[in-house]
Write a structure and sequence with these properties.
Pfam families: HTH_1 (PF00126), LysR_substrate (PF03466)
Keywords: DNA-binding, Transcription, Transcription regulation
Shape: elongated
Family: Belongs to the LysR transcriptional regulatory family.
Protein name: LysR substrate-binding domain-containing protein
Distance between the termini: 46 Å
Structural class: alpha/beta
Radius of gyration: 25 Å
Organism: Marinobacter azerbaijanicus
Strand content: 15-25%
């Protein structure tokens, strides 16, 4: 078995993670010259430059980034296997998750996870965009792009959007549409797209990455376009649009996990209208080479069970 200088690998990982020779030396309790020597020895063995140095700036080369992906994962696995043999039961995992999914669905359920699996120590890495699938970012991910062949994926939710408003605003809608004399209940007549457009439409830019893209898709679902008379209010995030709806500012499009189990989901009314599929599906993702790790297995099973229990996916 032909291996690189093994002492240099933790040094390389520390320098790459901290982006600094001096900080790596401090963390490893060695001199900065010893760190430089280990990196030079590794670069000589590989015949590749791993870092670009420009004054006080240090960046990984393309080869360095590629090497870090493999070395970082291997060192993590060595650490975890060693902990298991030493009898350490705790499992520490970093989960990268979309902020809206975390705030509205995952965080309210974390006490249940901690109660059922106290040995699992989970830290959340918030992501506003689809995360890069890499051990440098997290150990596992909630993603909508199952693109990497090095990862395995478990479906949690296929997204659909539907209109909601506050309880008070729903009563206003019923009054203005002349429905306040009707008995409210399951047989509430469906609102037409024309009736919906008579009220402010709260739009989330991030869903389709363009202004009013969510409402365009909703109207397109019934082969219509947004009426020219419609009043649109724009927000960068679904969380903001939902808060505006809570405070009686209009009608927002939201999805199932945003109203899944939060106690304040009762503040909202789902309007009797059609829903539209966004084309996005949410997956729990983990590196296939780490599939046997106990912590990942526990988290995967728990997330799937909660998604089924909360109605996000079928069994």
């Amino acid at each position: 078995m032909k291996l690189p200088p093994l002492k240099s690998l933790p040094v390389f990982e520390a320098v790459a993670r901290l982006n600094s020779f001096s900080l790596a030396a401090e963390e490893l309790a060695v001199s900065q010259s010893a760190v430089s020597h280990q990196i030079k020895q590794l670069e000589t063995y590989l015949g590749e430059k791993l870092f670009w140095r420009s004054g006080r700036t240090l960046t990984l080369t393309d080869e360095g980034r590629q090497y870090l992906d493999g070395v970082g994962s291997a060192l993590l696995q060595i650490e975890r296997v060693s902990e298991q043999l030493l009898g350490h039961e705790e499992s520490r995992l970093r989960l990268s998750v979309f902020s809206s999914f975390a705030v509205r669905w995952l965080v309210p359920r974390l006490p249940d996870l901690q109660r059922e699996h106290p040995q699992l120590e989970l830290s959340l890495e918030m992501s506003s965009e689809n995360p890069v699938l890499s051990d440098r970012v997290a150990d596992c991910f909630i993603t909508i792009k199952p693109a990497s062949a090095a990862f395995s994926y478990e479906l949690l939710y296929t997204e659909r959007l539907f209109p909601v408003c506050s309880q008070d605003y729903w009563q206003r809608i019923r009054r203005e549409l002349g429905r306040d004399s009707e008995v409210e209940g399951r047989d509430e007549p469906e609102l037409s797209p024309e009736e919906v457009s008579r009220f402010p439409l709260l739009s989330t830019h991030s869903i389709f990455d363009r202004a009013a893209g969510d409402w365009e898709a909703w109207y397109r679902g019934v082969e219509q376009t947004i009426p020219g008379s419609a009043r649109l209010q724009h927000f960068s995030h679904m969380l903001l649009a939902l808060e505006a709806a809570r405070f009686h500012q209009g009608i927002a499009l939201t999805n199932d996990y945003m109203l899944s189990t939060r106690k304040d989901s009762g503040d909202f009314v789902r309007l009797p209208c059609h829903s539209v599929m966004t084309g996005d599906s949410f997956y729990f993702a983990w590196k296939t080479s780490r599939r046997r790790e106990r912590g990942i297995q526990i988290l995967r099973r728990w997330l799937v069970d909660e998604a089924i229990r909360g109605g996000l996916r079928a069994e």
